[in-house]
Amino acid sequence: MSLYSCGFEGCSKKFKKPSLLELHENTHTNTRPFACKECDHRYFKNSHLKVHALRAHGCTEKRICKECNKTLASEEGLSRHKDVCGRVFTCNACSATFVRAKWFLNHSRACIGTVSLDNKKIALDTKIAQNTKPSLNTPNAEEMPQKSKNPDQTKKQDLVRCKICGKGFKLEKNCKFHESHAHNNLQYPCAHCSKVYNYKGSLTRHIQKIHSNINKS
What we know:
Mean pLDDT: 70
Order of helices and strands: EEHEEHHEEHEEHHEEHEEHH
Shape: globular
Strand order of the largest sheet: 1-2
Number of strands: 12
């Protein structure tokens, strides 16, 4: 069995899955990708976020997406999330496909072109791509206000960013290692429709729920 090694200098840890490697590397960069929708708390793991949401805000299972286990702050937020969860997003500029809207939007800012999201087109120019983050609910990114530059923003722009998910690295070799390992063979396409999933378990649940009649026939 091939193991995935941490790309940070001085760290010899290895992991069986790219997803576990990514969680570990987040501790090196202090990247906490799981943010609470109710407050400013952020966590390394989604399981930690769910515990916080239940204890601090009383979020119930009804607010947790059964497809990806993401915790939402409200029923309305969960409903909006379900509209995009599990879909495939395609970049019109280079035809790259993504199963997560976040990765798609991060890529679009680096690719800079006209991209489609939920049958809507978002025109991205250089200034918008560098200074703003389009929202899933924003039909036109040009209408979004530009953020003023600050030292923290300049520091973030100096990082070498992953072309797939937008994660930043201080060294280019670490970024290349991340791209070749963390995003290698993560997509599981459905043989019966156009949906693609990051996890095999998600694909299995999809087939059992949507295509159960096909398997019986």
